[in-house]
Amino acid sequence: MKHLTTDLAAIPWVQHGFFTREGGVSSGLYTSLNCGFKKDDKRNNVRTNRALAAAALDIAPDRLVVARQTHSTKVVTVRKPWVPKNAPESDGMVTAERGMGLGVLTADCVPVMFASKKDKIVGICHAGWKGALGGVPEQVVAAMKRRGAPPEDIAVAIGPCIGADSYEVSGAFLLPFQEQDADNARFFKQSPKSGHHIFNLPGYVVHRLKRVGIETIYETRQDTLTGEAFFSNRRAYLNGEKGFGLQISIISIK
What we know:
- The protein has six helices and 14 strands.
- It has a single domain (3-161, 217-253), classed as CNF1/YfiH-like putative cysteine hydrolases (4-Layer Sandwich), CATH 3.60.140.10.
- The protein is an alpha+beta fold.
- The strands form three sheets. A six-stranded mixed beta sheet has the order 4-5-8-7-9-13. Strands 1-2-14-6-3 form a five-stranded mixed beta sheet, covered by helices on one side.
């Protein structure tokens, strides 16, 4: 089963993987490692796919947790696993529990992993443009700091997401970013389409992390829109498809 790793793997107690869409049991638009519960994919397929991803990282399937993502800035501390129907609404998680797999689902949004280089504390978040603007990555950093891991000790990995040259947005889209900070205009460039811009979402996320003291950031630099090995919401829309799957990214403490 194919998954990407970064230099987070140099931290001896960290296990992590950014999974592609390959290696699962789903079919059609969800071929094949769809890990999101979609109305047109069988729930048993999704359960199997999540179990396969967990097993690839030596995590017990019942120790893999995925929250109900709502593009929020809410971060929860995970002390014990939950079943999907009891998953809390959250877009960030942290844990100090060994063998607990923290998973987020994406299909263009940014999966961001966090690991303390000195203490056995890890975190993860799902950062779409709303979560990034609101500061969900910083909220994970703050949660880890409260557990004793200061920003300078945290290494971060940015997973596959819509690329810096692929995210076309309307002209009005950039207004809340400009209102937040006029310097955010540097993450937008003119689109060939009149009245539109190209937004560098991963670059913006990295900027926000550096601003709160994160010094070590690894990037996979994989574009989900152009990379056929990944699910992509935007590609599905452009192709007129009626659905799309979600890939999973997982981090845990060995």
